[in-house]
Amino acid sequence: MPWGHERFVTFPTSKNVNKAELRKHYLQKRKDLSPNKREALSGEIVYRFNEISLGHLKFIHIFYPITGKKEFNSLLLKKRLERDYPHLQFLLPKANLVEHTLLHILWEKDTPLAMNQWGITEPENGTEISAKMIDAVLVPLLTFDTTGNRLGYGKGFYDRFLAECRIDVLKIGVSYFEPEQAFEEVDQYDIPLDICVTPAKVWYFEKGHKKSGL
């Protein structure tokens, strides 16, 4: 069966399934994918970006894939976007591991990168860009639901970051798997996605939708 048409089995969401259990489940689902399959699914996700218009953007904030977390290969996406949108400028996060906040560094050809203590590749230094100048954010996640809520790693880095961005910033998630039904647990500080891209389709969410749960 071709990539993008595979039937994905979701974890049954109920009041007895909490965020910790979902995180564990989806981390294991990622680990169960072979390296070749992860790369193929990443390629399908990159292909789906043809359906999204990004030509009006100037700054896009992306993440460097964490090998240990078996994340989507965002380097493939960067290569594709550089080809399609030569004017687009890329930013990488640099984490403050004490305050759980991010700086946003312009990713240029000579920007030095190094791995931090959490195994995350990030800029050692470079030109910092204000969150208010960012037009789109590629948001890492473990899973998402049909109303655009995302489940991350639980540290709150991206919720704090997105709260600093302009209200019109485009929030794009990427997931190997199709969504869960609406999460039972949604924190008041959780910021929903505008779009989530999977191998099978591009999911669009209504801006300002009401969140279920808390």
Notes on the structure:
The protein is of the alpha/beta class and 214 residues long. 22% of the residues lie in helices and 20% in strands. It is built from four helices and eleven strands. The protein has helices at residues 19-32, 35-48, 74-84, 157-164; strands at residues 59-61, 89-96, 101-106, 113-115, 121-123, 136-139, 143-144, 150-151, 170-174, 195-197, 202-204. The strands form three sheets. The protein has a seven-stranded mixed sheet, with helices on one face. Strands 4-5 form a two-stranded antiparallel ribbon. It has a two-stranded antiparallel ribbon with strand order 7-8. A hairpin with a 5-residue loop joins strand 7 and strand 8 (150-151). Helix 2 packs parallel to helix 3 (74-84). The radius of gyration is 16 Å and the shape is globular. The N and C termini lie far apart (39 Å). Mean pLDDT is 88; it is low at 1-16 and 208-214.
What's the quick description here?
This protein is α/β, with parallel strands linked by helices and 214 residues long. Helix content is 22%, strand content 20%.
Rounded to the nearest angstrom, the distance between the terminal CA atoms is 39 Å
Q: What is the strand content? A: 15-25%
Secondary structural class: alpha/beta
Overall mean pLDDT stands at 88
Instruction: Tally the helices.
Output: 4
Helix content: 10-25%
Spatial shape: globular
By DSSP, the count of extended strands is 11
Quick one: biggest sheet?
Answer: 7 strands, mixed
Low-confidence spans: 1-16, 208-214
For the biggest β-sheet, the strand order reads 3-2-1-6-9-10-11
Specify Rg, calculated over alpha carbons: 16 Å
Could you spell the SSE succession in H and E letters?
HHEHEEEEEEEHEEE
